[in-house]
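S1.2 Input.
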Amino acid sequence: MLISELMAYIEEFAPLTLALDWDNVGLLVGDPKRPVNKVLISLDVTPNAVSKALQIGADLILSHHPLIFRPLNRITDPLLLQLIENKISVISLHTNLDVAPGGVNNALAEALGLQIIDHLTAEQGGKWYHLCVTVPADHLNAVSTAAFQAGAGKIGNYSSCSTRHGITGTFKPQPGAKPYLEQPDALGLTKVAEEELEFMVDEASLTKVLDVIKNSHPYETPLVYFFPVATPNPAYGLGLVGKFSPDLSLTEIARLVSERLKCRRPRLWTAGLSPQTKVERIAVCGGAGASILKSAGQKANLVITGDIGYHNLLDSRIPIIDAGHFYTEYPVLEYLRNRLQTKDIACEVLPLEEHEYHMNLLEQGF
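S1.3 Output.
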C-alpha cells in the first residue's frame, strides 16, 4: 500500500476536514508515493517512538499528536533529521480523530465500559453542505445512488437521506449546446418534468459527490448548487455522555478509571459531594477537557477528562475525575490498530510502559 492509499482510507473514518482550524493533521513527513510496509502507532512522535519504529522496521509512524504544529524556518531538530534520514514518514490524526465516530472519546468510553447516550458538544471542524440538483425523472435513481455511494445523504446514524419533489424545468439551447432532449414550443422553449433532489454532504465528500453527479447525470450542464449550513452534522462532536449500569459512586468510578486506564493516581474533585454519591450521567473527553466543562455541567453529573487546572476545579459545580491527558487518549491507539489491520497493514502500538510520559512521571510521595 502507498502512503496516498493509506491517507485515502483514513479519510473514510477520520476525515482531515474534521480537524479544528488551529490544528495540523495529515501527512506531516514523507512522500505520498512511498510504500508503507509497517506502521508504529503512538500518541506522540518522541525519541522512544522513533527508536521503536527503527527496532521493528516501521517506515511510518501514525500519531495522535502532530509532530509539527507551527511553520518551520529550518530543519535542524535531531528528531526530524532522524526521521528523514531513516525514511520514516509521519501521519498525525488529532482533533479530527477527537470528533470522529469511533475515535478518541468512543475509545475512552469503551475502555471504561460506559454505555454511550449522546455527544457532549457539537464542536467539530469542516463544513456541512446542503446540495441540490435537478434531474429528469428517468435518471433520478441513477444520480441519487451515485451520490449516496460517494458519501452524500449521511445524517447521524442514517444514510441515503434526501428530499425530492417534482418540478418543471425549462430551457432554450444556445448555439453549440447538446441538450439531452428537446421539445421546443412555439417560442423555442422546452419544458421538462424533473425531480429536485436535495441532500446534506460533508466537506470531505463534497468534491467526490459533485464528480459523480456530473458523470451520472444525462445533462450537458446539470443544475447543481450547494451552500454551507450553520447546523452542525450530528454524526460528529467533541466529547460524549454515557452511563454505567448499575450506577456507580464517585469513589468506585475513580478506582475503575485508575484500573482500566492504568492511571496511577487520578484526581477526584468531589465538588462538595460525598465520595459515595452515585452518579447517573458521565461526560468523557479524552486529552485536555477544560473547554468542555461548561457543556458537561449542563448534560452530566460527572466529568472524566485530563489537564484540569486549579481554577477549573474551583469553578466546577459537578465532580471531575482528572485522569491525565496521556491516559485518557491512549485507548484510541488500539482503535487505530484495528482499523489498519482490516486492510492487512502490518502495525504495532507503542506500549504504554515504553512512552516517556508513563516512564518518567513519578507520582508517589517522597
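S1.4 Remarks. The chain has a mean pLDDT of 95.
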